[in-house]
Here is the input.
Amino acid sequence: MQTVGLAQAAVEERGIATASITMLAKITAKIRPPRALSVPYPLGFPLGEANNPALQTAILKQLLALVERDDVPVLEELRV
Amino acid sequence: MLPSSAMVETRKLSVGLRAFLKTYPWRRIDPVPVASLSKPISECKVALVSSAGFVVPGEEPFSDSVRGGDSSFRVIPGDVNVQSLEEHHRSDSFSHAGVEADRNMGLPLDRLHELAVTGKIGSVAQRHFSVMGSITAPGRYVKHTLPAIADLLVEDHVDIALMVPV
Here is the structure.
């Protein structure tokens, strides 16, 4: 979670909006990337389930919607 | 602020990993930078950054012998067959079964292309980026790797970068 969180900060500083997925919301809350989507899946399964395009797309759509938020840092929970 | 699931999410982790997560000095981003979108998502070019350690076949794998973690990065072309990517993440702190069965689990490139076809996003970036997570000594990663990735995202006129850890 730290590896992508730090990447978000570096990229966001260059004017590109970012959002990340997290499986460890408590850790992400400490790191404070601009926008993160907390998913209820174990490490190794950020998109939920292999070969489940519907679920993966639903997660990506919520991740994209999060990018419109400017009230950073924002940590949102997945709704599926 | 914290989702309710945060209370249960660490239960299934190993004792060693839980101890690490509790005591590791996490880097706190402060102040938190923010870049606001200047156009609708349906007009944005979107790139993916994955920490799943994916490598295009034939390119140099990530190394497990670098102290503090291999901080290098790989470029993943937007038109790659995502299932052909090799996974070289060396950590045993998570199950690799998901990304082994479907690379979209760590780099949802097929899903991103579908979102472009349906008009949800404007376009898929020509380059995406792969690093190997579990970098416990991120000094070099922050100083060299991330600025290099950010340079390429700017060069490609990317509007949104979605980040996927494993």
The mean pLDDT of chain A is 97.
